[in-house]
Structure formats: C-alpha cells, structure tokens
Amino acid sequence: MGVEFLKGHGTENDFVLLPDPDGLLDLTESRVRALCDRQRGLGADGVLRVVRPDFGPWFMDYRNADGSIAEMCGNGVRVFARYLVEAGLVPLGEFAVGTRAGQRGITAHEDGTVTADMGPARVTGTSSARVGGVEFAGVAVNVGNPHLACLTETPVASLDLRDQPAHDPAVFPQGVNVEFVNVLGDGALRMRVHERGVGETRSCGTGTVATVAAWLHSTGQRTGKATVDVLGGQVTVVVEEESSTLTGPAVLLARGELDQAWWDAL
Ligand SMILES: N[C@@H](CCC[C@H](N)C(=O)O)C(=O)O
C-alpha cells in the first residue's frame, strides 16, 4: 500500500494533500520538493499534511514547494478544510483548523466555497521591492506570515515576476511574499504575487488579505471589504480591526497513491 494523496487548489494555488492522522509520515524537504516538482512529481505550490493532534482541531502542516515551512497559507487552509468535510472528518459548516499561526475558524459552505478567519492583518511599516530595475513602494503586512504589498499604477500584467523581487532583508529577515496591486475601483483590486519559497503563483490567500489591508491603509481606512482578482480567479476579503476573512473556491480534483518505492527512494 503506497502513500495516500489528494490534489486540490484554491483559485489555482495548488497543493498536494497527505492525510497523516497519526503523524507517521517522514515528510522531508526532499520529499516535498519532489512532490511539488511539475516534471518529476505531481506538481504543486505546496504540501498540506493533514494531522490529528492528541488535543485540539485537525492541524495543517504546510510546506512551500522548496521544502521550507511557512506559518500560514490562506488558500491552503481552505482546501484543507474542504478535504476534512469531503472525508467526513468534520461536518459541513463551522469548525476550527490548527495552523502554525494559531487556530483558524472555518465556514465550509454548501456551494463548495470556504471562508477562513485569517486572524489580524497587521500593518507593520513600509518598505520597497525592485523588479526589472524599477522600485515599487510597499506596505509591510503580517498575516501570520510576512508580506509586502505594493500598490502601483503600472499594470501588474506587465511585470516579469520570474525572479524573486529584491527586498530589504533588514525589514524581512525571514524572507517575504511580495504582492503587486492595481486598484480597479472602490473595493475592487487586481494582484499578482511572488511567494517566498515558491515563486510566482496564480493566487495567494494571505497575500490577498495583505493586499486589502494595504489598500485600506493607503486610503486612511482600517476596516473594509474588497474583491481581489488573481490569475486563478477571484476571492473576497474582509478586514476588521482584530480579524479578517478570506472567501473563495476550494477544489479537490484527484486522489490516489504514491508509489511506495518512489517515496522510499527520496
Ligand atoms: N499560498 C499561500 C501562502 C503560502 C506561504 C508563503 N509562501 C510563505 O512562505 O509565507 C496562501 O494562500 O496564503
């Protein structure tokens, strides 16, 4: 019997899920890298290991495609929640999921969308990122993980995000996810993102929350609601004083078994 897996995505931010209720899998960095590799593995932006702790809710052990560990993943937690419901491990509706950034409240809706409580989106200062020799001013936002959201009039579609945007390591000693944002109208934003530990992805849930917090900050507001268009679809974000929510689709599309010999050789 090989290692069970599922594949899923939230607005095309895609993940391999590894159900591991008893915490028996040895999820090494090289295994994560191989799973996420789009040529020699299944291909994904990250891995979600599904663990049942002795106490508390199901825990999302999130890894970036390069094998690094991140505190939080907004699209990942929505796909994780969809899996828990589909597997009959929690009822449709409201429940909690544990993450490294703390416990997150989830509402799994009947139409397949999931709302995740993302905790506070804290604006911590300003900084800048450089792409193609051009400097973009940004707002640093912590959503459990670090972000630099750069509002710009340059159409985000025109940016080359193949390389990591240069940023200030003194401000972001643990690295940073960098968002580039166009304001389309009141409460309507467009974002592209370069994720720490992954590269450009088609969506980033925590990045969309950081984007809305930065947009509100730029207009002198602390709370509000916006839709965020990403390459993989659209999500809705609500930012409040001490919390925020992210709503969007969460899709499971495949399940199967990894070849045990392939896994053992990694
Ligand atoms: N795609 C995720 C964020 C994943 C973690 C990020 N790359 C980091 O290292 O902080 C999301 O949907 O939030």
Automatic annotation (TrEMBL):
Alphabetized Gene3D superfamilies for the sequence: Diaminopimelate Epimerase, Chain A, domain 1 (3.10.310.10)
Residues under site feature: Could be important to modulate the pK values of the two catalytic cysteine residues: 147, 195
Pathway in which the depicted protein is active: Amino-acid biosynthesis; L-lysine biosynthesis via DAP pathway; DL-2,6-diaminopimelate from LL-2,6-diaminopimelate: step 1/1
A single MF term (Gene Ontology): diaminopimelate epimerase activity
GO biological process, one term: lysine biosynthetic process via diaminopimelate
Catalytic activity, reaction form: (2S,6S)-2,6-diaminopimelate = meso-2,6-diaminopimelate
UniProt main location, coarse: cytoplasm
Amino acids binding substrate: 13, 64, 74-75, 145, 177, 195-196, 205-206
A Gene Ontology cellular-component term: cytosol
Active site, UniProt feature: 73 (proton donor), 73, 204 (proton acceptor)
InterPro entries linked: DAP_epimerase_AS, DAP_epimerase_DapF
Record has Nucleotide-binding as a keyword: no
Keywords: Amino-acid biosynthesis, Cytoplasm, Isomerase, Lysine biosynthesis
Class of enzymatic activity (EC top level): isomerase
Listed Pfam families: DAP_epimerase
PROSITE patterns, A to Z: DAP_EPIMERASE
Keyword Repeat in record: no
Enzyme Commission no: 5.1.1.7
Superkingdom in the source lineage: Bacteria
Subcellular localization: Cytoplasm
Function in brief: Catalyzes the stereoinversion of LL-2,6-diaminopimelate (L,L-DAP) to meso-diaminopimelate (meso-DAP), a precursor of L-lysine and an essential component of the bacterial peptidoglycan.
Family: Belongs to the diaminopimelate epimerase family.
Subunit structure: Homodimer.
Name of this protein: Diaminopimelate epimerase
Record gene name: dapF1
